[in-house]
Amino acid sequence: MTSGRTLMLIDGLDTEAVDGDWLPVYAPATGELLAEVPRGGRADIAAATGAALAAFDGWRRTSPAARGRLLTQIGDGLRAVKEEIAVELARETGNAIRLQSRPEVQSAIDLLHYFGGTATELKGETVPLGAGLLNFTTREPFGVVGAMTPWNAPVQLSVVKVAAALATGNTVVIKVSEEAPLAVLAVARIFNRHLPPGVLNVVTGLGDEAGAALLAEPRIAKLSFTGSTAIGRMVMASAADRVVPVSLELGGKSPSIVFPDADTDATADGVIASMRFPRQGQSCTAGSRLFVHESIYDSFLARVTAKAALLVVGDPLDEKTDIGSIINARQFARVDRYVRGAIELGAEALTGGSRWPGSDQGFFYTPTVLTGVDPGWAAAREEIFGPVQVAIPWHTEDEVVALANDSPYGLAGYVWSHDIDAALRTAARIDAGWVQVNRGLGQLPGLSYGGIKASGIGQEFSIEGALDAFTHRKTTTVAFRA
After folding, report:
1. Hey, how many other C-beta atoms are within 10 angstroms of the C-beta on 253?
2. Where along the chain is the active site annotated (predicted)?
3. Domain hosting residue 124, numbered range
4. Which of 262, 320, 436, 446 has a CA between 20 and 30 Å from the CA of residue 143?
5. Does the model's pTM come out above 0.90?
6. Tell me, what DSSP letter sits at residue 101?
7. φ, ψ of residue 68 in degrees (nearest 5)
8. What is the mean pLDDT of residues 459-469?
9. How far is CA 319 from CA 49, 100, 167, 314, 322, in A?
10. Residue 244: how many other CB atoms lie within 10 Å
């Protein structure tokens, strides 16, 4: 599946880059060359946008029910090759197949079925303006959506954008991460078996080449980006320059608040799940700031660190593995730099804190819990995007809410308590787009998910979010003889 060269998809055809250049794709866990993909650039983005624009009128005129049926069929097609895609995904991302890659592909299947089933919910309103006037609204697609997705969960994050955009009548040009494009390209070919040419186009390439070209392409009517806050600011600036709508799902430094009555193994398991250790912490929703009430601080951290130390690091394709490899050397060095910096300032690694000694290949890092961290240190304020959780004690509810909200980010939050009043009161006070109480797992179809502050604009994973993100409301007013 990944021997040799894997081509882009433009206008329904497998396509090389116009310039004829190629990019290597390596397995993070082994350094093995998996494949080469085209190094797309401005000409390729232009061709993909032209194909999407040509396909737009026919696609928008396709009935919502028919569009939904096609998305459902694509979901069925993906389900038939679920294991094959999961293996490809684990190899190119380094994510463990049992806990991350296989569930990620299942999430993509569920999203396709969800948007397939809700595609007919593009409903407008009637507005009474008085006798002799009929006023109604309709939901209209923007046109060609330009999407950009990252490497940490490439199949899920690509499918959620594509399915939502297609369900609402748009066509799509998506630029996928050069670090992990192969599984997305394989999924795109399943789409291609069901869709008219040009409805979905997938371009591979570098961010400052193909990505920049997509941002500057004047025929793109909507931008949708998932990735770092730094790049998100660039996307927003490009959207502002051309006055096009934009959706951004960006970084996070999510708080995880543990109340005194939650000193249990079940809560410790939830905290570990919320930290996204099985994705090497490479998740914008990771609960990487762990606030534990001072009365249970030592005992609860003992539970968490004991469980974290038992997580199996190793080959992403091994069914026993809990934690795979960080994506590349650059990200590995970034993670280690934050850990070393905190320890130099006086922090202590209760577990982990260094490279995993089990292999001299790949970019394996031990799951790390740091204590003795000041809330103002970089490790406690900046997104590390690695398997590193900082633990901080708290005394009063007001204090922990202030600590949780003292962040430029506002993506997710977690509250752990059996006192429903305290849990809901705290959840209501956290500045975040998504707060979970006594749950540390990922997004589900139908759940409106998105951030505030520097974590982004707009929501995904729900038909409500899709309507807001990928359609505009048109008002029609008709005068008649009353």
Report:
1. 24
2. 249
3. 8-250+455-476
4. 446
5. yes
6. I
7. -65, -40
8. 96
9. 41, 11, 35, 10, 8
10. 17
Q: What is the pLDDT of residues 322-368, one digit of tens each?
A: 999 999 999 999 999 999 999 999 999 999 999 999 998 999 999 99
Q: Are residues 224 and 361 in the same domain?
A: no
Whether pLDDT at 2 is above 80: no
Strands 22-26 and 33-38: antiparallel
Residue 3, pLDDT above cutoff 90 = no
The contacts of residue 175 (CB under 8 Å, 6+ apart) are 40, 45, 146, 147, 148, 149, 203, 204, 205, 207, 210, 211, 214
Residues 281 and 411 in one domain: yes
**For residue 1, pLDDT beyond 80:** no
For 173, 182, 222, 466, the CA distances from 49, given in Å and listed in that order, are 6, 21, 12, 21
List residues with catalytic annotation.
249
Task: Reduce the secondary structure of 392-424 to three states and give it as a string.
Answer: EEECCHHHHHHHHHCCCEECEEEEECCCHHHHH
Q: Are residues 236 and 272 in the same domain?
A: no
Q: How many residues does the chain have?
A: 482
Q: For residues 240 and 160, what is the distance between their CA atoms, to the nearest angstrom? A: 24
Residue 309 neighbours by CB distance under 10 Å? 13
pLDDT in tens, 60-97: 999 999 999 999 999 999 999 999 999 999 999 999 99
State the Cα angle at 462 between 152 and 270, rounded to 5°. 55
